[in-house]
Amino acid sequence: MQFKKNMKIRFIFFTALFLAIGFMPTVSIITEATAAPFFAQEQKLEQTGSLWVATYPSGAKVSVEGKLVGTTPLYLKKLPVGTLTISLEKTGYPKRQKTIEIKAGKGQKLHLTMVDSIPAVLDIRSIPDVAEWSIDGKIKGVTPQFLDKIPAGIHQVTVNKPGYHEWVESFEAKNGQLTIITAKLRPKEYKLTLLTEPQNAKVEFLDGVKSYTPGMLMKPGKYVFWISAPGYEQKKGRVTLKDRDWVGLVHLQKLSKTTSKSRAKNSKKLKRLSYEPIVTTPKQKMSQPETPLNHNISAASLITAAQIDINNGRLFSPVGNNANEKLQQILKREPDHSLAKKILKKVQKLAKSGYLTYVRIFPISEKRKAERYIGLIKELNLPAFLLPTTVKGRPYFRVCGGLYPNRKQAVKARDKMLANLGAKEIILRRYRVTLF
Question: Most exposed residue of 96, 310, 373, 419, measured as fewest CB within 10 angstroms of its CB?
Fold first, then answer.
């Protein structure tokens, strides 16, 4: 009985011991299984970093270890710790590559310039402007022009314009600096040849700058010339030199003999337009307040003469012989003369707001040339007259291209003369009585 009791006790002891040993590994495994996720997460957080990538210019594609991740500017998160290869690409710029070491829990910055140097800026101009230009053989546009993004270094600029020699010059573009270039173009010269009949006729340019010789070199532009020979009628001509040499033939007609009939006809024509000027001495003015009228001059003749004075700018000339005096004579005789009143209002308006056009000035000795200029202006259906003047005490003739009631009409006439006469400059001036 006692033996059975001991055996029972032993069985219970060993069973408990066995169970205790069997439960020990199970507890250990459960402990490790529940603790592992926490420690693994902590270890993973410590193995990442971040990177900020920026480029000049922006818009570059960013690849990390060969994988495209976006374009700059770009912020990259949770990058694995260690060495990474960052590649940057942008059209028109060289490829960039950089090796970055990512550190755990830290943010880093990467700034790269896509160009080898900061581009320069060019301001290109020319005299005259509106000329085609190119840089390093590539046409860019017409002057004036402002061009940026020029790589640093030596470049060649070429400027071309019809009628001018080619302009070429090299310049050095420096990093981030502005370069101003002004191309002064030199006009090409072309040969001018005039063949005349009869031969050896005299050729004179209207501007009087050069004397003509066959095959002479002239700059591009418009020229007016006169051709004359003894016993022949004078003839004028125009030529425009643009992009090639010019050769022309001019045939002069012989002068016709003046007959007695034609002389008589011309003299009658002059008598119809003539009038007798009224001249009074200072003594006559004091004794006679009003100037006596000459009733032999008709109102029609005075109006015709007044119109001639208006066309020649003689409105209120202080020396007499002007449109105002002739019209006043008519109104003293016929106070209700409607045409005289109308023309007088025109004269007063011209004197108040009229504009003169000064075309050229000639010495008294060159009156013939001045009169030729007058003829050319009148061929443009514009009024013209000679205005006597003085420059530094010397007498001159000033060619005036008409008197106009306002500036707008004067500008229109000036532009027409500039386009057809080849004049370099025409000046506008307000009308002044003291000029005449």
Answer: 419
